[in-house]
């Protein structure tokens, strides 16, 4: 994240966060989800917008409008929390290239969630699927503490270079190579 932060002046992220505070949570989350596949595809892989799923709540407990136009109409169509606030990363390049659950959790997931939640002011969670190499981004959902997050309790993959270098006794339980998804797809 340090590299990302050097791409803009120090005040830029604070200013951006201040502007975001002007909008309702559903609006920020839905727009972040809409631009993620466009802006991040080159880095992490193909992605598509979906409904956010678990963990998305609104402070007022209300359902969100289905569009900005519906927000202007008190009787406009409403959707449940999380509507179009998720992004499914179809096959994460970070996880696929490293083959390491620890790199996923410690180098990608945790810093990205922290950056969005603390620096940008938009709660965001990432839920990796270590079997399919998919990753579900959910904007508007507060991330769990590291000790409560299953992503940090996942055993290492057998093809992980850290596992090979450190040996299983130091790296933790390793998945059998037949159980890990194939890379290079």
Description:
The protein has 185 residues and is α+β, with helices and mostly antiparallel strands. The protein has a domain at 2-57 and 80-148. It is built from 8 helices and 8 strands. It has a 4-stranded antiparallel β-sheet with strand order 1-4-6-5. The chain has a two-stranded antiparallel ribbon with strand order 2-3. Strands 7-8 form a two-stranded parallel sheet. It is globular, with a radius of gyration of 18 Å.
List keywords for this structure.
185 residues; alpha+beta; four-stranded antiparallel β-sheet; two-stranded antiparallel ribbon; disordered C terminus
What gap, in angstroms, lies between the N and C termini?
Answer: 27 Å
**How does the helix and strand content classify structurally?**
alpha+beta
Mean of residue pLDDT? 79
Q: Biggest β-sheet, characterized?
A: 4 strands, antiparallel
Instruction: Name the strands of the widest sheet in spatial order.
Output: 1-4-6-5
What's the helix count?
A: 8
Radius of gyration: 18 Å
- As a percent range, the share of strand residues is 15-25%
Which percent bin holds the helix content? 40-55%
Question: Could you spell the SSE succession in H and E letters?
Answer: HHHEEHEEHHEEEHHE
The low-pLDDT segments are 168-185
What is the overall silhouette? globular
Total strands: 8
């Amino acid at each position: 994240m340090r590299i990302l932060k050097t791409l803009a002046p120090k005040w830029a992220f604070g200013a951006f966060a201040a502007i975001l505070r002007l909008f309702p949570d559903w609006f920020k989350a839905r727009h972040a989800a809409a631009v993620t596949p466009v802006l991040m595809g080159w880095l992490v892989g193909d992605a598509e917008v979906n409904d956010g799923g678990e963990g998305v709540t609104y402070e007022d407990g209300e359902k969100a409008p289905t569009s900005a136009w519906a927000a202007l109409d008190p009787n406009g169509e409403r959707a449940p929390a999380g509507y179009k606030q998720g992004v499914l990363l179809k096959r994460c390049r970070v996880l696929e290239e490293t083959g390491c659950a620890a790199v996923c959790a410690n180098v990608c997931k945790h810093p990205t969630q922290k950056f969005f939640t603390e620096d940008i002011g938009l709660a965001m969670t990432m839920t990796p699927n270590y079997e399919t190499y998919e990753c579900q981004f959910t904007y508007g959902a507060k991330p769990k503490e590291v000790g409560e997050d299953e992503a940090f309790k996942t055993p290492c993959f057998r093809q992980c270079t850290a596992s090979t270098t450190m040996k299983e006794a130091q790296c933790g339980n390793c998945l059998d190579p037949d159980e890990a998804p194939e890379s290079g797809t």
